[in-house]
Amino acid sequence: MSRPSVMVRGNTAPRVTISDVAAALDMTKSTVSRALNGYPDIADATRVRVERMAKKLNYQPLSSAQAIRTGKTRSLGFVLQLADHDAMRPFLAEFLAGLSAGASTDGYTLTVASADSGMHLTETFNTLNRDGKADGFILPRALVNDNRVAQLTEANVPFVLYGRPENPTNCAWFDIRGEDSMRESVQRLVALGHERIAFVNGGLIYEYARLRREGYLAGLADAGLQIDPELIIEDAVRTDEGEAAADRLFDLKEPPTAIVCAVDHAALGVYRAAARRGFAVGKDISVTGYDGIPEGSHAVPPLSTFIVDNRDAGMRLASLLIRRIRGEASENLRETTAATFVDRGSIGPARQAVPS
Q: Is 178 in contact with 339 (CB distance < 8 Å)?
């Protein structure tokens, strides 16, 4: 069958319809529609043919008509939680750019809203669901008691977590293996002769804290080092909290020669405490972080840390959510990757003890 012709009037061409794509391929409109919407009963070869022809003809579906027909808006939802300690950090721009790019790859858009409290968060999800603003949601940072998961599961709304919950039931996720990073930090420090290695963990409301603690403990076990509860301080996510944690560690009868931090902000707090006491980071005390925030690269010496590719994380989360919206089981939508260590000079060979 011949391809449909396009009549030009002035500089405006009639909109290409799904009927035009179907005619060009000698297929039914139903087959073309199902192929373009990712239905699993359409063979991959057919889907590829349809997508290529749609692109060639510059076919663009009418979002309103598509929403009426399929019940889908082809939009992914993301609710920024303003109460988070780093809600407005620079990495958010890269993360949102990744989400948007991942959504647009499959013809979706990104809807972003914000909430400044737990109650407001619940209301925001309800509003977006009621008004049909999103087909599903990306949930940043898995929480220990995650009401978002319960709310969306009860409402039968697809979601993907950025993080891994302790209870995986009905959950899809993408996550960075922070526990591997903590374990590697300990291993690197042990190789430099450190035995008194402390751990300053992140926020206990987040699941990542449990995982990163497990990684630190695994690193100690690898080296045959005993666990010293005095060397483990929990719940430090801000710079002032990291500073307070370091002061406690430096005041011990046997202070550590190295400190592994679960987040960069806490690590920069360790820098502050060390500076007040006249300790040289990288010589008198070794410090590692995690996140790769810009401030770490400007510290003296620059912070040795694990860098996360936030743009890639956003793209992968968007891809997983689209597959979940299209009906794939959450058990098949669980991916992890590793962070990348950069040694910038804040770790060095162990000394006998931190100077008093």
A: yes
Closest residue by Cα to residue 77 from 144, 142, 126, 150: 126
54, 69, 51: which is closest to 19 by C-alpha?
Answer: 54
pLDDT category of residue 90 using cuts at 50, 70 and 90: low
Q: How many residues does the chain have?
A: 356
Rg over CA atoms, the chain: 25
- What three-state secondary structure class fits 48? helix
pLDDT the model gives residue 76: 94
List the alpha helices (DSSP H) in the chain. Answer: 18-25, 29-36, 44-56, 63-70, 91-105, 118-130, 147-154, 178-191, 207-223, 239-250, 264-277, 294-298, 310-325
Render the burial of 126-137: b for 16+ CB within 10 Å, e for the rest: eebbeeeebbbb
Q: Is the pTM of this model over 0.85?
A: no
CA-CA distances (angstroms) from residue 111 to 17, 75, 147? 26, 6, 21
d(CA 208, CA 175): 9
What is the Cβ-side half-sphere exposure of residue 191, based on CA atoms within 13 angstroms? 8
Per-residue pLDDT of 129-169, as tens digits, reads: 778 889 999 998 899 998 889 989 998 999 999 999 999 99
Most confident of 16-30, 67-81, 105-119, 144-158: 144-158
CA 345 vs. chain centroid, Å, equals: 27
Structure tokens belonging to residue 295? 């401030």
Distance from C-alpha of 78 to C-alpha of 34, rounded to nearest angstrom: 26
CB distance 320 to 333 below 8 Å: yes
Q: Which of 81, 90, 345, 85 is nearest to 239 (CA)?
A: 85
Taking 3-state DSSP, the helix, strand and coil percentages for the chain, each rounded to the nearest 5, stand at 45, 15, 40
* Biggest alpha carbon–alpha carbon distance for the chain: 86
